[in-house]
Amino acid sequence: MTERRSFRQQVLRAREDAIIASVNRFLAEKGFEAMTVDEVAADVGIAKASLYKHFPSKEELAAAAMVGVLDRALAFLDQEAARPVAPIEHLRAVARWMLQVQMAGEMPSLPSQNSTLRTALMQHRGYLDRVMTVSERLGAWITAAQAAGEINPKLPPEAVLYTLYARACDPVLPFLRAGGALSDEQALEVVLATCFDGLAAR
Amino acid sequence: MTERRSFRQQVLRAREDAIIASVNRFLAEKGFEAMTVDEVAADVGIAKASLYKHFPSKEELAAAAMVGVLDRALAFLDQEAARPVAPIEHLRAVARWMLQVQMAGEMPSLPSQNSTLRTALMQHRGYLDRVMTVSERLGAWITAAQAAGEINPKLPPEAVLYTLYARACDPVLPFLRAGGALSDEQALEVVLATCFDGLAAR
DNA sequence: GTCTATATAGCGATAGAC
DNA sequence: GTCTATCGCTATATAGAC
Predict the structure, then answer these.
(1) Nearest protein residue to D5's C1' (by CA)?
(2) How many CB atoms lie within 10 A of CB B128?
(3) Which of B134, B170, B194, B195 is 20 to 30 A from A61, comparing alpha carbons?
(4) Which residue from A minimizes the CA distance to B156?
(5) How far apart are CA B16 and CA B20, in angstroms?
(6) Rounded alpha-carbon distances, angstroms, from residue A74 to A78, A118, A178
(7) Which of residues 163-182 of A touch B (CB under 8 A)?
(8) Contact partners, residue B64, CB within 8 Å, separation at least 6
(9) Phi then psi for A98, rounded to 5 degrees?
(10) Which residues touch strand D (CB under 7 A)?
(11) What is the pLDDT of residues A99-118, one digit of tens each?
């Protein structure tokens, strides 16, 4: 009996993972407002009503996707923390990872403006906890890098943090790729260079 | 008779300017999808049907607002070109101007992702012409600055151009202002510094 | 839990009187 | 050109059978 229950739960869990993966891609490619619950259901291959049995609202769908990428980010931070390199190299690696996720079409882009989604996320404990954790761990590297003279110490640490977050959804990367003059790796390196070294010559 | 016609046309022109100004603010604060034609009409103080006598669609409303800011940009470029400074200083001034427009709540932010608006704009001659003109004039300063060793010559000029455009709608600025730790001028200077000088120490 | 069918609401756009 | 009133469509969310 317990075996069957466990099996069924695994099936449900797999289904939910498929839903989240689909939501993640739609959020990445068209954003929250343009994404419709109908197309998510169609993409997963289930009825819309079934989808609502798993997640009570469209906002919860998006929140689940955000929690997913934040967990992936936390896993990357763990792995990265084990590398014995300077703090700024950790930050560069994080930025590169975020850009790679974006290029893979798996970086959900939230509306930075006010919307029903933002208010929902601000009351979502699982989301907020993960954002806080990621921010604290990045913040530690930022202040360490500033103390070591690797990051401009005149910049407020939050400014550095916000800038890194913003680059994860930077529209410059897709534009450069659409231009076609640069390979994916070259486009990534260009965005990374402008982020850390700026536009001006050194 | 001609006087009365001229007068009435002036009234209509003023009304359309008021509409565009309202659209501009809504596009800046909530974006195209979240903006509704109803609230624009209510904000201007006319009926929705009247609004549709001036502009045939929601996309045309947004296009008119974009043409408006591009004309303001072109006027600024004219004024800036008269200053006898190095090319990079022109670019810095342009970036500062864009951030000021954004802080004033008058920088409409288009969805960088696919949408009905982007396809409409891509067929809008007045919009395309102005974008091309602005891009060419910025492009001249960019290549000049690279030739003078002021802008990193390794960066593709389009990458510099896209980066400047992207900073006009950078979410980092509103986030820094919302934090409250920095004054508006300080937040602007921080964003400007990260754009041109990067996060890394020099 | 999954489905079909439907309720409900908001929004872009239009009809028609004045 | 301006208004009121309404159409037509789409999208979120739900009811109820199985």
Answers:
(1) B49
(2) 12
(3) B170
(4) A190
(5) 6
(6) 6, 21, 30
(7) 163-164, 166, 170-172, 174-176, 179, 181-182
(8) B16, B19, B20, B23, B55
(9) -60, -40
(10) A 35-38, 48-49, 52, 56-59; B 12, 15, 45-50, 53-54
(11) 999 999 999 998 878 789 99
The pLDDT-based confidence of A7 (bands split at 50, 70, 90) is confident
Rounded mean pLDDT of B177-197? 97
Is residue B26 within 8 A of residue B43, CB to CB? The reply is yes
Q: Which two tokens stand for residue A134?
A: 């990621």
Q: Does A199 touch chain B (CB under 8 A)?
A: yes
Whether A57 has its CB under 8 Å from any CB of chain B: the answer is: no
A108-123 burial: b if 16+ Cβ within 10 Å, else e: bbbbbeebebeebbee
Residue B125's Cβ-count burial label (10 Å; 0-12, 13-18, 19+) is exposed
Q: Which nucleotides of C are covered by protein (CB under 7 A)?
A: 1-5, 10-16
Write down the residue that tokens 């068209």 correspond to.
A30
pLDDT in tens, B138-185: 999 999 999 999 999 999 999 999 999 999 999 999 999 999 999 999
Report the distance from CA of residue A40 to the C1' of nucleotide C6 in Å, as an integer. Answer: 20
Domain ranges of chain A: 57-196
Report in angstroms the alpha-carbon separations of A142 from A78, A110, A156, A160, A198: 16, 24, 10, 7, 17
Count of C-beta atoms within a 10 Å radius of residue A72: 14
Per-residue pLDDT reduced to its tens digit, A78-106: 999 999 999 999 999 999 999 999 999 99
Which residue lies nearest D15, CA-to-C1' measured?
A: A49
The predicted structure's pLDDT at residue B5: 65
- B162 and chain A: CB distance < 8 Å anywhere? yes
For the segment A135-144, the average pLDDT, to the nearest whole number, is 98
A139/A182 Cα distance (integer angstroms): 32
> How many C-beta atoms surround the C-beta of residue B70 within 10 A?
17
Evaluate whether the domain defined by B57-196 bears CATH number 1.10.357: yes
Distance (Å) from the alpha carbon of B86 to chain A's nearest alpha carbon: 13
Give the residue among A193, A167, A172 at the shortest CA–CA distance from B154.
A193
What six digits make up the tokens of A96?
């590169």
In angstroms, rounded to a whole number, what is the distance separating the alpha carbons of residues B87 and B156? 16
Q: What is the CA radius of gyration of chain A?
A: 19
Which of B111, B159, B176 lies closest to A162 in CB terms? B176
